[in-house]
């Protein structure tokens, strides 16, 4: 099963160093039965894009959390696509989180299929979205517009062999 895991560049560097994405449990996004039912007209590719987008939103929150904790982190969203056995995936019962899943174990580097990362041209939009998150969470419509606007930047696809170049 393809699962999209939100990440950051420092966390991706740890993956390259230790050989796995963790620690568990990990929250990710995938094409779940609830997502299929909700998005009736979508094909698999469209549904995977929805899951990827949800993971990118969580990556934005991870950036904000890292910065609040004093971690210096580049303003680029990162999503790691992994292929894991369906039995390793627990689907969320919350209908508001149709694509959300949990992985009970760390994911070895060998299960990573690809990495999706913002282009450097997106940094300004990502910075603005990270700054707007608190106000967006309080219901500010302008801040929500800024946070949603970052999704206009498509994530670039990278093969696993390119991870050292991304984090180096």
Strand content: 15-25%
Strand order of the largest sheet: 5-6-3-1-4-8-9
Shape: globular
Structural class: alpha+beta
Instruction: Sketch the topology as an H/E string, one letter per element.
Output: EHEEHHEEEEEHHEH
Count of helical regions = 6
End-to-end span in angstroms? 29 Å
Q: Which spans of ≥5 residues are poorly predicted at pLDDT below 50?
A: none
Question: What would you note in describing this structure?
Answer:
The structure is a single chain. The chain has 168 residues and is an alpha+beta fold. It is 42% helix and 22% strand. Strands 5-6-3-1-4-8-9 form a seven-stranded antiparallel β-sheet. A hairpin with an 8-residue loop joins strand 5 and strand 6. The two termini are 29 Å apart.
Which key phrases capture this entry?
7-stranded antiparallel beta sheet, alpha+beta, two-stranded antiparallel sheet, 168 residues, 22% strand
Short account of what is shown:
This protein has helices at residues 9-18, 33-38, 44-68, 123-137, 141-149, 163-167; strands spanning 2-7, 20-21, 26-30, 78-83, 89-91, 100-103, 107-108, 112-117, 156-158.
Secondary structure layout plus pairing:
Blueprint: E1 2-7, H1 9-18, E2 20-21, E3 26-30, H2 33-38, H3 44-68, E4 78-83, E5 89-91, E6 100-103, E7 107-108, E8 112-117, H4 123-137, H5 141-149, E9 156-158, H6 163-167
Antiparallel strand pairs: 1-3, 1-4, 2-7, 3-6, 4-8, 5-6, 8-9
Helix pairs in contact: 3-4, 4-5
